[in-house]
Amino acid sequence: MTVENSQSSYVFQKKVNDIGLLCVGCTDDGMSIKLEDPKTKEVKVVFDAVSGAAVSSLPHCDPEITSQMAKFAQDSVYTFGAYFANYAAEELGKFMCENSNGAFASSLFTGSGSESVENAMKIMRQYHLEKGDTKRYKFISRTQSYHGFTIGSLSIGDGSRKPPFKPILLSDEVTPKVTNVYPYRNQKGTEEEYTKQLLAELEQCFIDNDPTTICGVIFETVGGSTIGTPTPPKGYLDGAKALCEKLWFE
Ligand SMILES: Cc1ncc(COP(=O)(O)O)c(C=O)c1O
């Protein structure tokens, strides 16, 4: 690729040959961000509209957070995560595990959702391997879902971003899909009936794909980038968890 001095941006974004709006800070209350048009230098204040698909849960420029980040940048250096931690990571990990209602016993800190999904897939496989169960390699996920842009996360996802990369992704055999959760269009009866229907489909998916080869099930709790934000019907996530436990622990 040739780099010409006249190019307007050196950051690879949605449009390669153009420069996007630049974030230049936030308002004092941390509620809104400031975006500058690099061409006109005009700055617009926007109510948190660019964090992505509902994945940013911290206030912007919170002085407590920025001062802690600055402190740790001075106190710590890069170390290889597989061998070294630091007191801040230990403390945060302990806080998260203790507040997970018994769900977690350890933490792995990653730089993005995509990287988290990749690691989750490998940890699921490793979990079964360490139990001596070497046959499990399939991941069930849902249609019209988004799990990230890396090879593994795109494979378990389903949407318009996927088709161009399909030849280099995990195969359909490795990534079976069940229907998305979309009560607005798909719920025909009561919420309870809808939950039953979705769980029956999940169970059938286990059966159709040989339950002894299912390694993991990955769902967005609340849909994001590809489907708006439909919430799961009552009992659905607990029911899906119970089905997995029946499969793996009984
Ligand atoms: C449910 C879900 N998983 C994973 C990701 C990927 O996260 P990231 O963009 O930080 O890689 C997203 C991003 O929107 C998401 O909504």
Give start-end ranges of low-pLDDT stretches.
Answer: none
Please state how the strands of the largest beta sheet are arranged side by side: 1-2-3
CATH class of the largest domain: Alpha Beta
Helical percentage: 25-40%
Which fold does the CATH topology of the largest domain refer to? Aspartate Aminotransferase, domain 2
> Would you report the number of β strands?
6
Distance, first to last CA: 55 Å
**How many domains is the backbone divided into?**
3
Beta fraction: 5-15%
SSE pattern: EEEHHHEHEHHEH
Q: Which structural class matches the secondary elements? A: alpha/beta
Task: Tell me which ligands are bound.
Answer: pyridoxal-5'-phosphate
Architecture (CATH level 2) name of the largest domain:
3-Layer(aba) Sandwich
Backbone CA Rg: 22 Å
Tell me, rounded to a whole number, the average pLDDT.
90
Can you describe what's shown?
The protein is of the alpha/beta class. The chain folds into 3 domains: 22-63, no CATH class; 76-109, no CATH class; 112-249, Aspartate Aminotransferase, domain 2, CATH 3.40.640.10. Helices cover 34% and strands 10% of the residues. It has 7 helices and 6 strands, in the order E-E-E-H-H-H-E-H-E-H-H-E-H. It has helices at residues 63-75, 87-98, 113-130, 151-156, 183-186, 191-208, 236-249; strands at residues 22-26, 32-36, 43-47, 138-142, 177-178, 214-217. The protein has a 3-stranded antiparallel beta sheet, with no helix packed on it. A 3-stranded parallel beta sheet has the order 5-4-6. The radius of gyration is 22 Å and the shape is globular. The model has no long low-confidence stretch (mean pLDDT 90). The structure holds pyridoxal-5'-phosphate. Pyridoxal-5'-phosphate (PLP) binds next to helix 3.
